[in-house]
Amino acid sequence: METKIERPVVVCVDDDPAVLAALRRSLRSEPFELLTTQSPEEALRWVNTRRIDLVLSDQRMPERLGTELLHDVRRCSPRTSRVILTAYPTGTAGI
Fold first, then answer.
1. Chain center to CA of 94
2. For residue 93, what pLDDT is reported?
3. Dmax of the chain from CA atoms?
4. Predicted pLDDT of residue 6
5. CA distances from 6 to 29, 30, 43 (A)
6. pTM score, two decimals?
7. Average pLDDT per 10 consecutive residues for the chain, totaling 95 residues
8. If you count Cβ atoms within 10 Å of the first and of the last residue's Cβ in the chain, which end, N or C, has fewer?
9. Helix or strand holding residue 75 (H, E)
10. How far is CA 8 from the centre of its chain?
């Protein structure tokens, strides 16, 4: 019997398509499944419907702040790690 080894799943959320493309290029050879989206709501749907190991989120997005998204991720999936990716020095306390 063959045992299927599941790769960790990482979700990257950013409203800037260029940033998502750069992350995909930078992380393409890493040993995990990478999902990318411009939509915080889509990322949250993924967290609610499958095992997600890490959510990497931009802080400033039009729909909502990354810290708000990561608070929701923590509430529905406490074991999912969370990281803010931002160029802004403030607004990330309390994640």
1. 17
2. 54
3. 52
4. 85
5. 16, 14, 19
6. 0.86
7. 82 97 96 97 97 97 95 97 83 53
8. N
9. helix 66-76
10. 12
Round to whole Å and give the CA distance between 69 and 40.
7
State which amino acid sits at residue 34. L
Q: What is the DSSP string of 29-54?
A: TSSSEEEEES-HHHHHHHHHHS--SE
94: left (phi over 0), alpha (psi -120 to 50) or beta: left
Token digits for 63? 């729909």
Q: Say which amino acid occupies 79.
A: R
Alpha-carbon Rg for the chain in angstroms: 14
DSSP-based three-state secondary structure for 37: strand
Written as six digits, the tokens of 28 are: 């393409």
Q: Which residue has 């990281």 as its token pair?
A: 83
Q: Tokens 């608070």 correspond to what residue?
A: 71
Task: Name the nearest CA neighbour of 55 among 43, 63, 64.
Answer: 43
